[in-house]
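Subject: sequence -> structure tokens, single chain

Hey, anyone have a minute? Need the predicted structure for the following. Not urgent.
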Amino acid sequence: MTGSFQPERLQVLRTRAEPGVVVLVLSGELDAGTAPKLGQAAARVLASEPEVLVLDLSELSFLSVAGVREVRAAHDRAASTRLRVVTGDRPTVRDFLHATGFEAVLDCYRTRIGAITAGSRAEFVSHARAAWEAG
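Reply:
Had a minute. Here:
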């Protein structure tokens, strides 16, 4: 694996889950060489101003700091669009986000269905508070 731009190592599939919700499913490797591909895909989606953008990272086989920074950049560019991240059960994603502290900044879910059907921001804060107190 090299640091050069090799977008073919990352596949990005765009789907619509329900009105106002767009899902980007990422598979492969998200690192410095593929992060621009995510940035471009997220920018195209955010230009249409959906209510929610779900980034499903559960199918990634590799995630680097540069990849997480691109996820955070998409989060920062989202403006009024709520960005949600699916971590799945793969330690590659879930543990890395937790270890780097990004899990505390991003709106993370274990499943795509959970991210799609999550309620309002107030419901999220309530859920996060309950999880924090339980953990």
